[in-house]
From TrEMBL, chain A:
Assigned protein family: Belongs to the CcmE/CycJ family.
Organism: Shinella yambaruensis
Extracellular side stretches: 29-149
Gene for this chain: ccmE
Protein residues bound to heme: 122, 126
Protein name: Cytochrome c-type biogenesis protein CcmE
From TrEMBL, chain B:
Membrane topology, from the record: Multi-pass membrane protein
Protein name as annotated: C-type cytochrome biogenesis protein CcmF
Family: Belongs to the CcmF/CycK/Ccl1/NrfE/CcsA family.
Predominant location: membrane
Length: 149, 661
């Protein structure tokens, strides 16, 4: 092969690989992106059952109930609307009533939100950023310690 | 008083690194040797000043001087001594000071071991290091000063985030920074080469040890962070594709590519421009990682505090260095002459493939990490890109690389024979399949893909050994000759083999855990049992305990196999008194390379407690593999041909450098 052919082979192979990678990334994005909602959004946005989303808000006080085994139900609120959530597993250490939470999962056909992951604040000085931003945007008063500067 | 001395030393260090960045540069432009000679002295002085400043902050933590705001916010008089010390970098200000300390440490190393570097190159490298140090010293002094005092001094501190009160904090950040920041040296060498407009094999020979060292540290740092998250968070996961993890993983991927392309440049004088670009990109990814983690655009346990001015400042540093470096590259890259020719199928070709895949993978992880941030900034829409994205893209991209790795060392430089290499790897592929079949027999079922993955892991290990085997000529020459040849193999051959074996071991661990782990979430009362991985756990009951700065409730479990008690496990939930913050201390028992992982959930009204039990088969392989990779890096570093400052070699090379122009 001449120098030019060799170079073309390397460059051609490289470009083919890159194109494959870009297609792969686009496919993966279309499959696995989860949008973030607070309960108030859900009335407007039509989220079909089975679509993975992240649901954020505050755990409504007095709604945390333990069912059989390690199944837990609680209600997520942004003070405008509420969504009941079912979760099986161990809640994070910092999960508390009246505090911020992000639940990842999908709605079942019965309208109940089935979470497979529940995230709470990382430490006591802030709540999940997504939740704080949205609650602030909706005018929910957060006590000084809860907000992020 | 001592605090103010530390503060003053930091300001003085800033002045010193400004001198270090400007005078040597002027010296190389004017050809003034006296000005160039300022660089090493300034680098050493800067290092000593920052070291003093850092020691002062450490002292303030050790004596719990709560008049220092930073100590008050992050320490507590009852905290054990080890966490008082590690707490120095368990917060934003202190960790940036550690960042700077390691940066000037590397400058000082270049100054000390760079005596055999050409004068101009050394002056330029240290000047670039000086510029980076200046930026970060300014950042600390202007936005993140750890020496600010409180008046009046509070009586008691606010304690360190309990999640960080762990031995992991002593190991993970320093190692990670040694890696992250170590790439600054490769970056400075690349910029220095661009400033001077010349570059050759000797340049690659000087850069490679620094890259190797940084890469080894980064490997260990990431692995340590992964193990820490695994045992501390109580979620049983070892990698979450969390943006802060990706922030350290992207430079690792780029650094791995750099390591391999520098090899081509050193041996064959090819890929010069690409290697320089990669050196720039690798450190740029380190800077980007620092920005992501420290600016507060991400919320995580790593974003200690969020303050928009800091984010903007780091962003400015980022734009200045990445933008400046790439512009310089655009202007000067054409002056670097292209080097040796090679056929697509050759050792060089294999290393190009390695680079292509690694940089694509790095770009993919970067895309997945930045996309949510960019989308939110542009449209306000909040999305999350989770593990499924990364597993699919990264996993598929890595597959061809893993298959190709054993081929690389078996191909000849310039022109290789892929069929011959394939024949030599027949045995390795056979070993891989047989090992996977043995696992299939023991496991009796499971996903087909998992066995395919395991076969790849074993094949990589066998393939790496094949290379050493062939090089020593085992089976072809007399035994004593083969032994002598084996011992006489260059360190870099062992380093390569070890690093590649390490990947194989990690792959085996990842696949085994992903495919065969079992998880049970059960509500248990004393006396109840749960089965996991062939072991029977019996819950014996709870006990209350008191630590120095926390109270805890621990569950005791007895582990039995076939009716015989083999171990016991304590798993606890702690409540740290100063911050009223609960943490989970998982109970972990190791059996061979596998682990039993027990974490406690909430207590129930009827006296039971929710318990989560995992069986993690072969999980230790994940971290043992990374340690083997790191060992490979260190063995390569000890290769006498590569030793930092092997003077004879370098002198021989020197004339070539002059001739290159």
């Amino acid at each position: 092969m001449t120098r030019k052919q060799k170079r073309l082979a390397v460059i051609g192979g490289g470009i083919a690989f890159l194109v494959a990678a870009v297609l792969l990334v686009m496919f993966a994005f279309s499959q696995s992106i989860a949008y973030f909602y607070v309960p108030g959004d859900l009335a407007k946005a039509d989220v079909p059952p089975g679509t993975r989303i992240r649901l954020g808000g505050l755990v409504e006080s007095g709604t945390v109930k333990r069912g059989e085994g390690s199944t837990i139900t609680f209600t997520v609120t942004d003070t405008l609307a509420t969504v009941p959530v079912t979760y099986t597993g161990i809640l994070p250490d910092l999960f508390r009533e009246g505090q911020g939470v992000v639940a990842e999962g999908a709605f079942g056909t019965d309208g109940l939100f089935l979470a497979d992951t529940v995230l709470a604040k990382h430490d006591e000085t802030y709540m999940p950023k997504d939740v704080a931003d949205r609650l602030k945007a909706q005018g929910v008063e957060l006590s000084g310690k809860e907000t992020i500067k | 008083m001592i605090i103010e001395l530390g503060h003053y030393a930091l300001i003085l260090a800033l002045a010193t690194v400004i001198v270090q960045s400007i005078l040597p540069l002027v010296g190389t432009i004017r050809g003034d040797r006296a000005l160039m000679a300022v660089a090493p002295a300034a680098a050493l002085a800067g290092f000593l000043l920052v070291l003093f400043s850092f020691s002062v902050l450490t002292f303030a933590y050790v004596v719990s001087d709560f008049s220092v705001g930073n100590v008050w916010q992050n320490s507590h008089s009852l905290k054990p001594m080890i966490y008082k010390i590690t707490g120095v970098w368990g917060n934003h200000e202190g960790s940036m000071l550690l960042w700077l300390l390691i940066l000037v440490f590397f400058s000082a190393l270049v100054a000390t071991f760079g005596a055999n570097l050409p004068e101009r190159l050394r002056a330029n490298v240290l000047a670039v290091q000086g510029f980076i140090s200046t930026a970060f010293a300014l950042f600390i002094l202007l936005t993140s000063n750890p020496f600010l005092r409180l008046q009046p001094a509070p009586a008691e501190g606010q304690d360190l985030n309990p999640v960080l009160q762990d031995i992991g904090l002593a190991i993970h950040p320093p190692l990670l920074y040694l890696g992250y920041v170590g790439f600054s040296v490769s970056f400075s060498f690349a910029i220095a080469a661009l400033i001077d407009g010349r570059i050759d094999a000797a340049w690659a020979r000087w850069v490679r040890p620094w890259t190797l060292a940084a890469w080894s540290f980064l490997t260990a740092g990431i692995a340590m962070g992964s193990y820490w998250a695994y045992y501390e968070l109580g979620w049983g996961g070892w990698w979450f594709w969390d943006p802060v993890e990706n922030a350290s993983f992207i430079p690792w991927l780029a650094g791995t590519a750099l390591l391999h392309s520098a090899l081509v440049m050193e041996k064959r004088e090819a890929l010069k421009i690409w290697t320089v670009l990669l050196a720039i990109l690798t450190f740029s990814m380190s800077l980007l990682g620092t920005f992501l983690v420290r600016s507060g655009v991400l919320t995580s346990v790593h974003a200690f505090a969020t303050d928009p001015t800091r984010g903007v400042f780091i962003l400015a540093i980022l734009v200045f260095f990445i933008g400046g470096a790439l512009s310089l590259f655009a202007f000067r890259a054409a002056t670097l002459k292209a080097g040796g020719l090679f056929a697509p199928i050759s050792r060089e070709g294999a290393l190009v493939l390695n680079n292509l895949i690694l940089t694509t993978a790095a770009a993919t992880v970067l895309t997945g990490t930045l996309y949510p941030l960019v989308l939110e900034a542009l449209t306000g829409e909040k999305i999350s890109v989770g593990p499924p994205f990364f597993n699919l893209t990264f996993g598929l991209l890595m597959l061809p690389l893993l298959l190709a790795v054993p081929f690389g060392p078996l191909l000849a430089w310039k022109r290789g024979d892929v069929l011959a290499a394939g024949q030599r790897l027949f045995a390795a592929a056979g070993i891989g399949l047989v090992c996977a079949a043995v696992v299939l027999y023991i496991q009796n079922g499971g996903p087909v893909l998992a066995y395919f993955g395991l076969a790849i892991g074993f094949y990589m290990i066998a393939g790496a050994i094949t290379d050493l085997w062939l090089r020593a000529g085992i089976g072809k020459v007399a035994r004593n000759v083969a032994v002598r040849r084996f011992i006489g193999l260059p360190g870099s051959a062992f380093g390569t083999a070890l690093a590649h074996i390490g990947i194989g071991v990690t792959v085996i661990g990842v696949i085994a855990v992903t495919a065969f782990e079992t998880e049970h979430v059960v509500e248990m009362k004393p006396g109840m049992q749960v089965e996991a991985g062939g072991y029977t756990l019996t819950f014996d009951g709870m006990r209350r305990g008191q630590g120095p700065n926390y109270s805890e409730e621990s569950g005791h479990f007895t582990v039995a196999r076939g009716g015989v008690i083999v171990a016991d496990v304590w798993s606890s939930k702690r409540l740290y008194s100063a911050r009223r913050m609960p943490t989970t201390e998982a109970g972990i028992r190791t059996f061979g390379l596998s682990q039993l992982y027990v974490s406690l959930g909430d207590a129930m009204a009827d006296g039971g407690i929710v318990v989560r039990v995992w069986w993690k088969p072969m999980i230790l392989c994940i971290w043992i593999g990374t340690l083997i990779m790191m060992a490979g890096g260190i063995v390569s570093l000890c290769d006498r041909r590569l030793r930092v400052g092997a003077p004879q070699k370098v002198r021989k090379v020197k004339p070539a450098l002059e001739a290159a122009e």
